[in-house]
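Support request from a user on the community tier.

User writes: "When I paste my structure tokens into the form, the page sometimes reloads and wipes my input. The last time it worked, I copied everything first. Here is what I submitted, just in case something in the input itself triggers the reload:"
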């Protein structure tokens, strides 16, 4: 099988499968339960098409129905479990991240790039909460405004990075947010040159984080790991002189112990 990515309309592209996945992904923290009309609107489908997919997912046990409301069932977790189970390096990384949390009292995570977002796939959470939203495995954040996102974007081939910069919308989350494409490009280039990225209160006021890429022993990019903290509690000097070396140490340990 070649590596060409199919597009809608290609002979081998299964539109029904794509639409069914769109329906599953329409449910989220802000839309845990929806009516048929709401699902149709969020997926840009007509009601008849959305109804067929909802009823099929209901028959397969991925969706349950209460009156006019639909919601996901725990069976959806099987899809995520399959991903987690197929990546055997995760328990190793989990332990390293937990060691960081135990030592520094800070949250530490592993994320991968998915489209224009980073997705958290391993997390060791500290007791204190840093963001208004609860971060957990499966959380998506904009890659442009996270330290993990920038070090992962720095690993992209030039053509892919240019395409990302051309399409990604930039917005002002805080007064510190980068809102011009040239500034974002410079930040990504800097992350590539120095091998790490620090994002200081660009996504959420008070949130400061540092990230490095993490590789397996065979050179495969596994994702990025970070340490996130409160800017009022941890200054930049501590982030650079204590947190960054500890993170680099963990990344090197992962490289030595994974293949």
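"...and here is what came back when it finally went through:"
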């Amino acid at each position: 099988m070649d590596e060409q990515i199919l597009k809608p309309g290609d002979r081998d592209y299964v539109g029904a499968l794509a639409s069914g996945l769109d329906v599953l992904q329409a449910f989220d923290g802000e839309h845990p339960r929806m009516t048929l009309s709401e699902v149709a609107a969020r997926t840009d489908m007509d009601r008849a098409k959305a109804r067929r997919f909802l009823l099929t997912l209901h028959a397969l046990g991925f969706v349950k129905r209460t009156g006019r409301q639909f919601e996901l069932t725990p069976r959806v977790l099987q899809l995520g479990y399959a991903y987690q189970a197929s990546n055997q390096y995760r328990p190793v990384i989990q332990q390293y991240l937990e060691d960081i949390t135990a030592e520094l009292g800070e949250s530490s995570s592993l994320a991968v790039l998915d489209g224009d977002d980073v997705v958290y796939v391993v997390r060791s959470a500290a007791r204190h909460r840093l963001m208004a939203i609860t971060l957990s495995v499966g959380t998506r954040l904009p890659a442009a405004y996270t330290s993990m996102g920038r070090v992962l974007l720095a690993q992209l081939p030039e053509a892919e990075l240019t395409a990302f910069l051309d399409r990604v919308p930039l917005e002002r989350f805080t007064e510190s947010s980068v809102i011009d494409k040239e500034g974002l490009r410079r930040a990504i280039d800097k992350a590539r040159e120095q091998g790490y990225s620090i994002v200081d209160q660009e996504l959420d006021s008070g949130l400061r984080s540092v990230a490095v890429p993490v590789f397996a022993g065979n050179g495969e990019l596994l994702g990025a790991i970070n340490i996130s903290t409160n800017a009022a509690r941890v200054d930049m000097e501590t982030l650079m002189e204590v947190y960054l070396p500890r993170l680099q140490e963990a990344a090197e340990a992962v490289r030595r112990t994974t293949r």
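Agent notes: The reload is a front-end session timeout and is unrelated to the input. The first helix runs from residue 15 to 26. The CA atoms of residues 97 and 108 lie 6 Å apart. Escalated to web team.
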